[in-house]
Specification:
The protein is α+β, with helices and mostly antiparallel strands and 530 residues long. The protein has helices at residues 5-30, 68-73, 105-122, 153-156, 177-185, 203-216, 251-255, 269-289, 307-313, 361-374, 380-389, 412-418, 452-470, 482-492, 497-500, 525-528; strands at 43-55, 61-64, 80-84, 90-95, 99-100, 127-130, 144-145, 222-225, 245-248, 260-265, 295-296, 299-300, 335-336, 422-423, 425-428, 440-443, 502-506, 520-524. The chain is globular.
């Protein structure tokens, strides 16, 4: 059983503090451990997501929202694992056997092909996999096939809220009756355009949707610039209340996007911190290179990536937290680029953390106190990372799992906060106190590509980069001020960024010495050699 936002408030601080205690226990056990024989050895695995569509009798394709049936068909003989995603039409497929530093491009390609072919064999008639980041017609008319069963949370959850005042959503537009009626049915999202029926049936996802909206105190407001040509109507309408923008209003528009993510094991705690920082610099460049999201809600956007849409789709900040003049201002959504490097390596300088991003100082102090009691020494840069994570509240709390045993190996309360900080890279501690899995880093910005060849190429490239970063003799150093990384993110979403935009980069990224002012230059991606 999960708590809706109002009923979970009493547990939030407890879950946060217990998460800190679990992290400190994890650090005490594993901060000095090595998880490979050599520093250049590592394991890794990818997560590939895609949409499931079905061709109707009229020859038109729509989203097929019955992926739970596929989970029932995948058995232990399959060379992959299928995992649920936010949308009931989405699938995430991961290899059952992990890769290593010696995995070849052909082996990656063979794995991707095998997954796609095996899945195709268990799909229903006229069902197909669609490998694109954002489904271009989500929210447009009758865009999905109706669910066959009625075991979805929307069918049995009651609605006791009086929130219809938010239907107008900060606009002056008169809301049509048909929109009001549709929104009343969407008790989780309150969406004008999407449907709660397309949310994955697992209650976690509907609860996430509702709790984000409740914490924000209004439904999410997604705006992306509209591509303007001769025939484009840039004016304000009922369904487009923001001039020259495409308006979307549900988590499904963002979390319904598909991506290509990859997680790497590391030798130890310090190598994981270094890899996290270096990947953070590369992450906006790979977003630009893999960009494949030019259409939202059936309209051509003036951006090419999913990033801004997802960021706004889960933005649970209150009006005060979005106000630049407020002492509680948070500059970014909980789905966005990181704002602080973790440091800990000989290449790091404190000046690189040049953003003024509020952190949770109370939780930093609490973590330091708990670490001191446990005999674990934590530096200020790592404590700041904790403070950065803990500016966010846990979004879903399981009523029957709030209380934890002191001797439990679980790190669930820490992961509750960690897993809903959806950042460009993710630092991942061992998953439990009794796990033999070590410190890992997840690279999260790449968009899914249409073919296995393209996806394999990007996975192989990041693997090569991971190998180079592990080579101390090579001395790769991508560090730059975090403000420049943010500028690169802003450039990465622009149309044809891969060809037309310039990105900040170090002039000499094989230089082990400290970079002085002026050692960064704006280059096209081709000149950066990526």
């Amino acid at each position: 059983q999960m708590c809706i936002r109002d009923r979970s408030k009493e547990h939030i601080e407890y879950v946060k503090k217990q998460g800190i205690i679990q992290l400190v226990k994890n650090l005490k056990k594993n901060i000095g451990s090595q998880f490979a024989k050599e520093k250049d050895q590592f394991l890794w695995g990818d997560e590939i997501e895609f949409h499931l569509v079905k061709k109707g009798a009229d020859g038109k394709f729509k989203l097929q929202i019955n992926t739970e049936k596929i989970f029932q068909k995948v058995n232990s003989d399959y060379p992959f694992i299928v995992q649920p995603e936010y949308g009931a039409w989405m699938l995430e497929v991961v290899p059952k056997d992990v890769f290593n530093q010696q995995t070849t491009l052909n082996e990656i390609l063979s794995s991707l092909k095998a997954r796609k072919e095996k899945l195709s064999q268990i799909l229903g008639e006229d069902e197909y996999q669609l490998h694109v980041p954002s489904y271009p017609f989500l929210g447009v008319g009758d865009f999905y096939h109706q669910r066959e069963e009625t075991n979805h949370p929307v069918d049995y959850m009651s609605d006791n809220e009086e929130e219809y005042k938010e239907l107008e959503h900060n606009t002056k537009c008169k809301v049509e009756e048909r929109i009001v009626e549709k929104t009343k049915k969407n008790i989780f999202s309150r969406s004008w355009f999407s449907s709660d029926e397309i949310i994955n049936p697992h209650p976690r996802f509907a609860t996430l949707t509702r709790n984000i909206r409740q914490r924000r105190q209004e439904k999410v407001c997604i705006q992306v610039p509209l591509f303007l040509d001769t025939f484009t109507n840039p004016g304000v309408t009922t369904e487009e209340p923001f001039q020259k923008h495409i308006y979307m209003d549900a988590m499904s528009f963002g979390m319904g996007a598909c991506c290509l993510q990859v997680t790497y094991s590391t030798y130890d705690f310090n190598q994981a911190r270094h890899l996290y920082d270096q990947f953070a610099v590369i992450s906006p460049l790979m977003l630009a290179i893999t960009a494949g999201s030019p259409i939202f809600k059936g309209k051509m956007a003036n951006i090419d990536t999913r990033w801004r849409v997802i960021s706004q789709s889960v933005d649970d900040r209150t009006k005060e937290e979005r106000d630049k003049n407020s002492p509680n201002y948070l500059p970014k959504s909980r789905y966005d680029s990181i704002s602080y490097f973790m440091g800990g390596s000989k290449y790091f300088r404190s000046e690189y953390n040049d953003l003024d991003f509020r952190v949770n100082e109370d939780m930093m102090k609490y973590a330091e106190e708990e670490a001191t009691k446990a005999g674990v020494q934590l530096d200020q840069d790592f404590l700041r990372h904790i403070g950065f994570l803990y500016t966010r509240d846990p979004l879903v709390i399981y009523k029957d799992k709030v209380e934890t045993s002191e001797n439990s190996p679980s790190t669930a309360h820490f992961e509750n906060v960690q897993s809903t900080n959806w950042n460009s890279v993710r630092f991942k501690p061992p998953p439990s106190l009794d796990s033999n899995i070590g410190w890992r880093v997840e690279f999260r910005t790449m968009e899914i590509q249409a073919t296995e060849q393209e996806n394999a190429a990007f996975l192989f490239f990041i693997k090569l980069l991971r190998s180079m970063l592990a080579c101390e003799k090579l001395g790769l150093n991508f560090y730059m001020p975090m403000s420049l990384v943010d500028e690169n993110f802003a450039a990465s979403e622009k149309k044809d960024a891969i060809l037309k935009q310039k990105f900040w980069f170090r002039k000499n990224y094989f230089d082990n010495q400290e970079a002085e002012k002026g050692e960064y230059i704006k280059l096209t991606l081709s000149l950066i050699h990526i």
